[in-house]
Amino acid sequence: MSETPPGPVSYASAGVDIEAGDRAVGLMKEWVKKATRPEVVGGLGGFAGLFDASALKRYERPLLASATDGVGTKVDIARRLGVYDTIGHDLVGMVVDDLVVCGAEPLFMTDYVCVGKVYPERVAAIVKGIAEGCVLAGCALVGGETAEHPGLLGPDDFDVAGAGTGVVEADRVLGAERVRAGDVVIAMESSGLHSNGYSLVRHVLFDRAGWSLDREVAEFGRTLGEELLEPTRIYSLDCLALTRTTEVHAFSHVTGGGLANNLARVIPDGLHAGIDRSTWTPGPVFDLVGRAGGVERTELEKTLNMGVGMIAVVPRDSAEAALTTLADRGLGAWVCGEITERDGRDSRDGGNAAVTLRHDYAG
């Protein structure tokens, strides 16, 4: 017969602190209130977020777009540095910029924050970053969930995920079916690594090179940790501005898989995108990862964004207007390639490949 466990058993004794969770909700409310839209009904605390769908009546045939994502192992950098109020920008960027690729306006997001132990201020800081990201994206944060998983996660461990919904007019959906030979490819600069490839980056810089996060790096003008924690650029409002001011055929969000693999997703059969590397210089963090780990360029390019976070494919006669719009919004952008007919040559020459990267990077 087993011995009777000493003392009463409770949820708290199992490691879940309901009161701490309630305090976290109280702390995050002020930030969530800032991430709203006129269509949001009610406030934080309900079982579900409410959004007034009558706002969609202005559409002839509204299509709802949905996307979900996380931040990946970049959360480990935030945990090590004890900085929690920027990782939410990464989460929002990864979700809403997938939505806008089809031309959809992001409407609202929900989040999921999973922790080993609820530290109210820490959870509130994470949600603060998510709310700020939603403001930058023009969408609302209508709800979320904070889960405490003692025994599965360590006290300092956490992860974040989110889901978003957007809307686009059916006859304005962007994608491969609109892309034509003669279109040009416009690159929009990234803010750094964004939220992809951190398993490679951490392995190279920490496990192999033995660098510390507080190491000052002259090329960055700041510490390694500050560079690695640089938030993902959020492009949704920039892309929507492009669709209002000029003709756009497709967008491509450059995430896991790199520029070529993601751009290939919006290149139709029979066409080819030739990208000229000499039109830009990747930021120093990409060169550092390559040098520190002896990582070949092909491996870097299929893992990291190499300085380009979003792509727009536009008609040639729309390129100047597109670049002007992006410049007016303070976003660096340039023509990096063009769309041509595939000519049947061997794939090593780009003839049968959807995307080819040519020449060497500038600088």
Automatic annotation (TrEMBL):
Q: Name one Pfam family in it.
A: AIRS_C
Annotated localization: Cytoplasm
- Pathway, according to UniProt? Purine metabolism; IMP biosynthesis via de novo pathway; 5-amino-1-(5-phospho-D-ribosyl)imidazole from N(2)-formyl-N(1)-(5-phospho-D-ribosyl)glycinamide: step 2/2
Identify the EC number(s). Answer: 6.3.3.1
Tell me yes or no: is Nucleotidyltransferase among this UniProt entry's keywords. no
Where is the chain membrane-spanning?
Answer: none
Does the record bear Cytoplasm in its keywords?
yes
Its keywords, alphabetically, are: ATP-binding, Cytoplasm, Ligase, Nucleotide-binding, Purine biosynthesis
- According to UniProt, the name of this protein is Phosphoribosylformylglycinamidine cyclo-ligase
The source organism is Streptomyces lycii
